[in-house]
């Protein structure tokens, strides 16, 4: 028996899923340890319950998920509005080197994913979803490409696979980052350099731009986001890049970057970072809750073993790169070890996982201002744009049909 759930009640269910996820996290220590997001915990729990209801009682709920697309576009617009290009100049030569390593890792992740997908008799797009789209891109980017692959290529279960890969990567990123840095520190006898009060420390990457949340700041932020959505949608419809298919969310992100930095010239207007971040967090949480609670888990059974093989080898790839390449090119010192831990976090999971990895290491061994400058710039800004470009490059290959 199928029951249609209207849009308003779908939103209610999504909020309840978020509250349930928060309650589970506070009661299950392992979820706190690995920093699993509330929508992932609550959404997967809801999907499991709904799957059991379908199998046991022949009951299937059909949620109205029309709000998912605009929620995702708002989220990527907030990423663009939060990207201050002035931060790039602070990283200098080491920022360029780390960025080059990350680009190489993105290429290798997708190359490995596609190769394994073909060996395991899966669609090559599954290799993209088991590559940088979800591991370096996280749940938001993974869900966006999952939807795109489902619509363009009729790839069944694409969103479900994307959510599973992103969740698995989030856990691995949190589990592996700390041990990688500890092994490097102990093996090479590394110690942090002495820092002064003038050095940039964790949590002090930029000047504090916070101001109290007010109706005015909220309205201004909503205005900017609507401009991003409107212009991004128009650009996606009318701008054609030969050989590249840029999804709407990429155009919204780029529009946000342009607005943030053009308006910030000579202090014309300062984007309210905390308000924009709050709106982005809410939109992403609601989107993920809707996406995850409607997972058709029974469609993933046949893909479980192949996807697990792909993700395991992807984890070994990132760890190997962090130890053999990132650590070496970043200077073979304490900062390089902390950065390696951060790379495991954002290249398998998400930037918050990378920060948590580095905080765990620095709280035990000592501060690393350089790591807390470079990793957020790469993990929260540059990687999203570069990842989209890399993925589009792979999609331009003949067998994808884009």
Low-pLDDT windows of residues: 196-210
> How are the strands of the largest sheet arranged?
1-2
Largest sheet, if any? 2 strands, parallel
**Into which percentage range does the β-strand content fall?**
under 5%
Structural class computed from helices and strand pairing: mainly alpha
Shape: globular
Averaged pLDDT, please? 84
Distance N to C terminus = 37 Å
Tally of strands: 2
The value of Rg in angstroms is 21 Å
Order of helices and strands, N to C?
EHHHEHHHHHHHHHHHH
The proportion of residues forming helix, as a percent range, comes to over 70%
What is the count of helical runs?
A: 15
Tell me what the structure shows:
This protein has 402 residues and is mainly alpha-helical. Helices cover 72% and strands 2% of the residues. The chain has 15 helices and 2 strands. The radius of gyration is 21 Å and the shape is globular. The model is unreliable at 196-210 (pLDDT under 50).
